[in-house]
Amino acid sequence: MFQKFFPNFASESKQKPMLVKEMYEQVGFNYLGKANHSAKMAKSGKYNELVYSVYLASSDASGYNVCPMANVFCKNACLNYAGYGRYNNIQQSRIKKTRLFFENRELFMKILFHEIEKYRKKAIKEQKRFSVRFNATSDINLKQLKLNGVNVLEQFPGVQFYDYTKVYKYLFLANEYSNLDMTFSYSGENWDECQSALDNGFRVSAIFQEQLPDYFRGYPVIDGDSYDMRYLDPNNVIVGLRVKNVPKQQLEQFDENPFFVPLSHPDRLDALSVS
Ligand code: SF4
Fold first, then answer.
1. Residue 146 sits in which domain range?
2. Which ligand 1 atom is at minimum distance from the Cα of 79?
3. Could you give the number of structural domains in the chain?
4. CA dihedral angle for residue 191, residue 231, residue 68, residue 83, rounded to 10 degrees
5. Confidence (pTM)
6. Among 79, 101, 113, 174, fewest CB within 10 Å belongs to which?
């Protein structure tokens, strides 16, 4: 059945193609990603949309680095450690999935393509929109998600993909693929790149400590928390996100962490955000 959807999988030598069940048995987890399965993604349901996403072990937590531009500020405050990510078994599962990506890319990709197709069909059946945000807690170039020479954006040309990134050059994949939308992420230290992203017509996300301001550095701020499907947003805006579920020690270090824009210290906004 798997090969019915992805005939190119069947061409992998003359050996018997692997069944879906066997793939999961081999990797030791039940799913790579899911649709609307975190609090953040569950909001998509209110918009009649399924968003499939994958949570990997962020930065170098697995021994492999999936966030080339992570800095000490975002690493410590990453969404990877929020919500279910507080639990050790969840972290172990994310580490296992991340290691699979580096150690058996082909199998990782087969599972990824299978799951995207599964949720795409589910969305059709339930008469919902469908989109994919691969990098929920990572920053991997989507062109690397490739099987038999075909990347994920090419494999599913009718599916809307969107992502956030701190890697400036990844933004421009959105100019190459019409089914991809990219948002640049403010790290607390990369304002110059944020400015270039805005100058090139992209939007920039920033995390604010308290309520959202109307403007940040002269750009209008929109509320980015009501849903995650950034591709529905206008360009040339700041997508304002509020701090969520940050571990206690991070809350205590708010003032020292420029990743969180401190509204209570407006005089420090510029000083903190210039790299
Ligand atoms: S780059 Fe993003 S996903 Fe990676 S550690 Fe920083 S906040 Fe987390």
1. 2-273
2. 8
3. 1
4. 100
5. 0.87
6. 79
